[in-house]
Write a structure and sequence with these properties.
alpha/beta, UDP-N-acetylmuramoyl-L-alanine:D-glutamate ligase, nine-stranded mixed beta sheet, four-stranded mixed beta sheet, 11 helices, 13 strands, 24% strand, binds adenosine-5'-diphosphate
Length: 304
Protein backbone atom coordinates (compact mmCIF):
# COMPACT_ATOMS: atom_id res chain seq x y z
CA UNK A 1 0.00 0.00 0.00
CA UNK A 2 1.00 3.61 -0.66
CA UNK A 3 -0.15 6.29 1.83
CA UNK A 4 -0.11 9.92 0.71
CA UNK A 5 -0.22 12.57 3.43
CA UNK A 6 -0.95 16.07 2.17
CA UNK A 7 -3.15 18.71 0.63
CA UNK A 8 -6.42 18.59 -1.27
CA UNK A 9 -7.57 21.70 -3.15
CA UNK A 10 -10.22 22.68 -5.64
CA UNK A 11 -8.51 24.53 -8.50
CA UNK A 12 -10.70 27.43 -9.67
CA UNK A 13 -9.32 27.96 -13.14
CA UNK A 14 -10.24 31.11 -15.08
CA UNK A 15 -8.91 31.41 -18.62
CA UNK A 16 -8.66 35.14 -19.42
CA UNK A 17 -7.62 37.07 -22.54
CA UNK A 18 -4.96 38.84 -20.42
CA UNK A 19 -4.22 39.45 -16.74
CA UNK A 20 -6.48 42.16 -15.21
CA UNK A 21 -5.04 45.31 -13.66
CA UNK A 22 -5.89 46.19 -10.02
CA UNK A 23 -9.42 47.63 -9.91
CA UNK A 24 -10.23 46.48 -13.45
CA UNK A 25 -13.20 44.27 -14.43
CA UNK A 26 -12.37 42.05 -17.39
CA UNK A 27 -14.95 40.18 -19.52
CA UNK A 28 -14.46 37.14 -21.69
CA UNK A 29 -13.25 34.67 -19.07
CA UNK A 30 -13.94 30.91 -19.15
CA UNK A 31 -14.32 29.13 -15.81
CA UNK A 32 -13.73 25.51 -14.74
CA UNK A 33 -13.24 23.76 -11.41
CA UNK A 34 -10.63 20.96 -11.43
CA UNK A 35 -9.66 18.84 -8.39
CA UNK A 36 -6.05 19.52 -7.40
CA UNK A 37 -3.64 20.05 -4.51
CA UNK A 38 -0.23 18.38 -4.56
CA UNK A 39 -1.22 15.65 -2.10
CA UNK A 40 -4.41 14.69 -3.92
CA UNK A 41 -2.70 14.90 -7.33
CA UNK A 42 0.04 12.52 -6.17
CA UNK A 43 -2.55 10.15 -4.68
CA UNK A 44 -4.57 10.17 -7.91
CA UNK A 45 -1.42 9.61 -9.98
CA UNK A 46 -0.33 6.72 -7.74
CA UNK A 47 -3.81 5.17 -7.89
CA UNK A 48 -4.17 5.48 -11.69
CA UNK A 49 -0.65 4.19 -12.33
CA UNK A 50 -0.45 1.37 -9.76
CA UNK A 51 -0.91 -2.32 -10.37
CA UNK A 52 -4.34 -3.58 -9.18
CA UNK A 53 -2.66 -5.30 -6.22
CA UNK A 54 -1.37 -1.98 -4.81
CA UNK A 55 -3.82 0.04 -2.70
CA UNK A 56 -3.55 3.83 -2.28
CA UNK A 57 -4.84 5.74 0.76
CA UNK A 58 -4.77 9.40 1.73
CA UNK A 59 -4.48 11.19 5.07
CA UNK A 60 -5.79 14.73 4.66
CA UNK A 61 -8.44 17.30 5.66
CA UNK A 62 -11.38 18.73 3.72
CA UNK A 63 -13.80 21.51 4.65
CA UNK A 64 -17.51 20.88 5.29
CA UNK A 65 -18.50 22.64 2.07
CA UNK A 66 -19.67 21.61 -1.40
CA UNK A 67 -16.09 21.49 -2.69
CA UNK A 68 -15.21 19.10 0.14
CA UNK A 69 -17.93 16.67 -0.94
CA UNK A 70 -16.89 16.94 -4.59
CA UNK A 71 -13.19 16.45 -3.78
CA UNK A 72 -13.95 13.37 -1.66
CA UNK A 73 -16.03 11.92 -4.49
CA UNK A 74 -13.12 12.54 -6.88
CA UNK A 75 -10.73 10.58 -4.62
CA UNK A 76 -13.22 7.71 -4.34
CA UNK A 77 -13.77 7.60 -8.08
CA UNK A 78 -10.05 6.83 -8.42
CA UNK A 79 -10.34 4.06 -5.83
CA UNK A 80 -8.41 5.93 -3.14
CA UNK A 81 -9.09 4.90 0.48
CA UNK A 82 -10.49 8.09 2.11
CA UNK A 83 -11.18 6.60 5.56
CA UNK A 84 -8.55 9.00 7.00
CA UNK A 85 -9.60 12.04 5.00
CA UNK A 86 -11.30 14.12 7.73
CA UNK A 87 -14.04 16.69 7.24
CA UNK A 88 -13.33 19.73 9.42
CA UNK A 89 -16.45 21.53 10.68
CA UNK A 90 -16.86 25.25 10.03
CA UNK A 91 -13.93 25.34 7.61
CA UNK A 92 -13.66 25.86 3.85
CA UNK A 93 -11.84 23.31 1.70
CA UNK A 94 -8.49 24.38 0.27
CA UNK A 95 -8.75 26.30 -2.99
CA UNK A 96 -6.31 27.54 -5.61
CA UNK A 97 -7.57 30.51 -7.62
CA UNK A 98 -5.74 30.29 -10.95
CA UNK A 99 -5.78 32.86 -13.76
CA UNK A 100 -4.38 31.65 -17.09
CA UNK A 101 -3.87 34.19 -19.89
CA UNK A 102 -3.95 33.59 -23.64
CA UNK A 103 -0.19 33.01 -23.65
CA UNK A 104 -0.51 30.22 -21.05
CA UNK A 105 1.08 32.29 -18.25
CA UNK A 106 -0.62 31.76 -14.91
CA UNK A 107 -0.94 33.53 -11.58
CA UNK A 108 -2.15 31.58 -8.58
CA UNK A 109 -3.49 32.45 -5.14
CA UNK A 110 -3.78 29.62 -2.60
CA UNK A 111 -6.10 29.50 0.41
CA UNK A 112 -5.10 26.47 2.49
CA UNK A 113 -8.43 26.26 4.35
CA UNK A 114 -8.89 22.80 5.89
CA UNK A 115 -5.36 21.73 4.82
CA UNK A 116 -4.09 23.88 7.71
CA UNK A 117 -6.08 21.72 10.15
CA UNK A 118 -4.12 18.52 9.43
CA UNK A 119 -2.56 17.81 12.83
CA UNK A 120 -0.28 15.24 14.51
CA UNK A 121 -3.47 13.81 16.09
CA UNK A 122 -4.76 12.94 12.59
CA UNK A 123 -1.49 11.11 11.91
CA UNK A 124 -1.71 9.18 15.20
CA UNK A 125 -5.32 8.26 14.44
CA UNK A 126 -4.11 6.78 11.13
CA UNK A 127 -1.25 4.78 12.67
CA UNK A 128 -2.80 1.41 11.73
CA UNK A 129 -3.03 2.57 8.10
CA UNK A 130 0.60 3.74 8.10
CA UNK A 131 1.67 0.39 9.57
CA UNK A 132 0.11 -1.40 6.58
CA UNK A 133 1.91 0.80 4.04
CA UNK A 134 5.17 0.17 2.25
CA UNK A 135 5.67 3.75 1.04
CA UNK A 136 4.64 7.07 2.63
CA UNK A 137 4.58 10.19 0.43
CA UNK A 138 4.48 13.79 1.71
CA UNK A 139 4.70 17.37 0.35
CA UNK A 140 4.80 20.76 2.10
CA UNK A 141 1.26 22.14 1.60
CA UNK A 142 0.18 21.10 5.12
CA UNK A 143 1.58 22.30 8.50
CA UNK A 144 5.27 21.47 9.02
CA UNK A 145 4.87 20.14 12.61
CA UNK A 146 2.43 17.54 11.25
CA UNK A 147 4.82 16.61 8.42
CA UNK A 148 7.68 16.22 10.93
CA UNK A 149 5.50 14.04 13.15
CA UNK A 150 4.41 11.85 10.24
CA UNK A 151 7.94 11.42 8.86
CA UNK A 152 9.25 10.48 12.30
CA UNK A 153 6.53 7.86 12.79
CA UNK A 154 6.90 6.40 9.30
CA UNK A 155 10.68 6.25 9.66
CA UNK A 156 10.40 4.53 13.07
CA UNK A 157 8.05 1.97 11.51
CA UNK A 158 10.66 1.26 8.82
CA UNK A 159 8.61 2.67 5.93
CA UNK A 160 10.08 4.14 2.74
CA UNK A 161 9.55 7.90 3.15
CA UNK A 162 9.25 9.99 -0.03
CA UNK A 163 9.23 13.79 0.38
CA UNK A 164 8.42 16.28 -2.37
CA UNK A 165 9.66 19.54 -0.72
CA UNK A 166 7.11 21.74 -2.49
CA UNK A 167 6.32 24.62 -2.21
CA UNK A 168 10.01 25.38 -1.67
CA UNK A 169 11.15 25.97 1.87
CA UNK A 170 14.30 25.38 3.90
CA UNK A 171 14.09 22.18 5.97
CA UNK A 172 16.06 21.00 9.02
CA UNK A 173 18.74 18.32 8.46
CA UNK A 174 17.24 15.94 11.04
CA UNK A 175 14.04 15.82 8.97
CA UNK A 176 15.89 15.19 5.70
CA UNK A 177 17.87 12.40 7.38
CA UNK A 178 14.63 10.40 7.74
CA UNK A 179 13.73 10.74 4.05
CA UNK A 180 14.69 7.92 1.71
CA UNK A 181 13.73 9.70 -1.54
CA UNK A 182 13.79 13.50 -1.66
CA UNK A 183 12.19 14.70 -4.92
CA UNK A 184 12.57 18.48 -5.46
CA UNK A 185 12.34 20.39 -8.74
CA UNK A 186 15.24 22.70 -9.67
CA UNK A 187 13.90 25.66 -7.67
CA UNK A 188 13.30 23.58 -4.55
CA UNK A 189 16.70 21.85 -4.84
CA UNK A 190 18.49 25.21 -5.07
CA UNK A 191 16.60 26.58 -2.08
CA UNK A 192 17.24 23.50 0.07
CA UNK A 193 20.94 23.61 -0.84
CA UNK A 194 21.08 27.36 -0.07
CA UNK A 195 22.08 28.26 -3.66
CA UNK A 196 20.71 30.84 -6.14
CA UNK A 197 18.00 29.28 -8.31
CA UNK A 198 19.66 30.11 -11.64
CA UNK A 199 22.84 28.30 -10.64
CA UNK A 200 21.49 24.81 -11.36
CA UNK A 201 21.89 25.04 -15.13
CA UNK A 202 24.20 22.07 -15.74
CA UNK A 203 24.76 18.56 -14.37
CA UNK A 204 27.92 19.54 -12.45
CA UNK A 205 26.05 22.34 -10.62
CA UNK A 206 23.09 20.05 -9.91
CA UNK A 207 25.47 17.38 -8.65
CA UNK A 208 27.09 19.87 -6.26
CA UNK A 209 23.67 20.97 -4.93
CA UNK A 210 22.54 17.37 -4.54
CA UNK A 211 25.78 16.49 -2.72
CA UNK A 212 24.89 19.19 -0.17
CA UNK A 213 21.41 17.71 0.31
CA UNK A 214 22.85 14.24 0.73
CA UNK A 215 25.38 15.56 3.24
CA UNK A 216 22.31 16.75 5.17
CA UNK A 217 21.17 13.17 5.28
CA UNK A 218 18.74 12.43 2.40
CA UNK A 219 19.61 8.96 1.15
CA UNK A 220 18.52 9.49 -2.47
CA UNK A 221 17.77 12.76 -4.27
CA UNK A 222 15.81 12.99 -7.54
CA UNK A 223 15.79 16.50 -9.02
CA UNK A 224 13.07 16.94 -11.65
CA UNK A 225 14.23 19.26 -14.45
CA UNK A 226 11.07 19.78 -16.52
CA UNK A 227 11.74 19.03 -20.21
CA UNK A 228 15.34 18.13 -19.28
CA UNK A 229 14.23 15.07 -17.30
CA UNK A 230 15.46 13.88 -13.91
CA UNK A 231 18.87 14.03 -12.26
CA UNK A 232 19.01 11.13 -9.82
CA UNK A 233 21.62 10.79 -7.09
CA UNK A 234 21.02 7.29 -5.77
CA UNK A 235 22.94 5.08 -3.36
CA UNK A 236 24.06 3.18 -6.47
CA UNK A 237 25.43 6.30 -8.23
CA UNK A 238 24.28 9.44 -10.06
CA UNK A 239 22.65 9.54 -13.46
CA UNK A 240 20.78 12.02 -15.68
CA UNK A 241 17.65 10.43 -17.14
CA UNK A 242 16.29 12.24 -20.24
CA UNK A 243 12.60 13.24 -20.39
CA UNK A 244 10.25 11.74 -22.98
CA UNK A 245 10.05 14.18 -25.92
CA UNK A 246 6.52 15.61 -26.07
CA UNK A 247 4.73 18.80 -27.13
CA UNK A 248 3.96 20.51 -23.79
CA UNK A 249 0.47 22.03 -23.51
CA UNK A 250 0.16 22.47 -19.72
CA UNK A 251 2.80 21.36 -17.21
CA UNK A 252 0.44 21.60 -14.19
CA UNK A 253 0.87 18.44 -12.07
CA UNK A 254 3.85 17.16 -14.12
CA UNK A 255 5.91 16.76 -10.95
CA UNK A 256 2.97 15.20 -9.09
CA UNK A 257 2.43 12.70 -11.91
CA UNK A 258 6.13 11.80 -11.95
CA UNK A 259 6.06 11.15 -8.20
CA UNK A 260 2.86 9.09 -8.39
CA UNK A 261 4.31 6.96 -11.19
CA UNK A 262 7.65 6.58 -9.43
CA UNK A 263 6.08 5.32 -6.16
CA UNK A 264 3.56 3.13 -8.02
CA UNK A 265 6.47 1.34 -9.71
CA UNK A 266 8.50 1.09 -6.48
CA UNK A 267 5.46 -0.37 -4.68
CA UNK A 268 5.38 -3.30 -7.08
CA UNK A 269 9.07 -3.97 -6.43
CA UNK A 270 10.50 -2.46 -9.61
CA UNK A 271 14.05 -1.03 -9.50
CA UNK A 272 14.81 2.67 -9.17
CA UNK A 273 15.86 3.28 -12.80
CA UNK A 274 12.75 1.49 -14.04
CA UNK A 275 10.57 3.49 -11.62
CA UNK A 276 12.10 6.79 -12.82
CA UNK A 277 11.47 5.86 -16.46
CA UNK A 278 7.87 4.87 -15.65
CA UNK A 279 7.27 8.15 -13.77
CA UNK A 280 8.71 10.17 -16.65
CA UNK A 281 6.55 8.41 -19.25
CA UNK A 282 3.47 9.21 -17.15
CA UNK A 283 4.58 12.85 -16.61
CA UNK A 284 5.15 13.33 -20.36
CA UNK A 285 1.57 12.22 -21.07
CA UNK A 286 0.30 14.66 -18.42
CA UNK A 287 2.06 17.70 -19.92
CA UNK A 288 0.33 17.06 -23.23
CA UNK A 289 -3.08 17.67 -21.54
CA UNK A 290 -4.80 20.50 -19.65
CA UNK A 291 -5.32 20.73 -15.89
CA UNK A 292 -4.17 18.96 -12.74
CA UNK A 293 -6.09 15.71 -12.11
CA UNK A 294 -7.72 15.91 -15.54
CA UNK A 295 -4.25 15.44 -17.11
CA UNK A 296 -3.01 12.47 -15.05
CA UNK A 297 -2.87 9.31 -17.19
CA UNK A 298 -4.02 5.75 -16.37
CA UNK A 299 -1.76 2.71 -16.31
CA UNK A 300 -3.34 1.23 -19.45
CA UNK A 301 -2.41 4.39 -21.40
CA UNK A 302 1.27 3.83 -20.57
CA UNK A 303 1.08 0.20 -21.52
CA UNK A 304 -0.48 1.09 -24.87
P1 LIG B 1 7.26 20.45 -11.32
O1 LIG B 1 5.94 20.41 -12.04
O2 LIG B 1 7.16 19.89 -9.94
O3 LIG B 1 8.00 21.75 -11.38
P2 LIG B 1 8.97 19.47 -13.45
O4 LIG B 1 8.57 20.64 -14.26
O5 LIG B 1 10.41 19.29 -13.14
O6 LIG B 1 8.17 19.37 -12.08
O7 LIG B 1 8.42 18.16 -14.21
C1 LIG B 1 8.41 16.89 -13.63
C2 LIG B 1 8.68 15.84 -14.69
O8 LIG B 1 7.69 15.94 -15.71
C3 LIG B 1 10.01 16.00 -15.41
O9 LIG B 1 11.06 15.38 -14.69
C4 LIG B 1 9.71 15.33 -16.75
O10 LIG B 1 9.82 13.93 -16.64
C5 LIG B 1 8.25 15.68 -16.97
N1 LIG B 1 8.14 16.90 -17.81
C6 LIG B 1 7.89 18.17 -17.39
N2 LIG B 1 7.87 19.04 -18.43
C7 LIG B 1 8.09 18.27 -19.54
C8 LIG B 1 8.18 18.55 -20.95
N3 LIG B 1 8.04 19.81 -21.44
N4 LIG B 1 8.42 17.52 -21.77
C9 LIG B 1 8.56 16.25 -21.31
N5 LIG B 1 8.49 15.92 -20.01
C10 LIG B 1 8.25 16.91 -19.13
Amino acid sequence: MIVIIGSINMDLVLRVPRMPHPGETLSGGQFRTIPGGKGANQAVAAARLSADSVKVAMIACLGDDAFGAELRAALRSDGIDDSHVSTVGGTASGVASILVDAGGQNSIVLAAGANDALSPAHIDAARALIEQARIIVLQLETPLPTIRHAIKLAHQLGKTVVLNPAPAQVLPADLLAQVEYLIPNEIEAAMLAGLPEASLDNDAAIDAAVAKLRANGSANVLVTLGAKGVYAALSSGSEHFAAQPVKAIDTTAAGDTFIGGFVAALAEGRGEADAIAFGQRAAALSVARIGAQTSIPYRHELEA
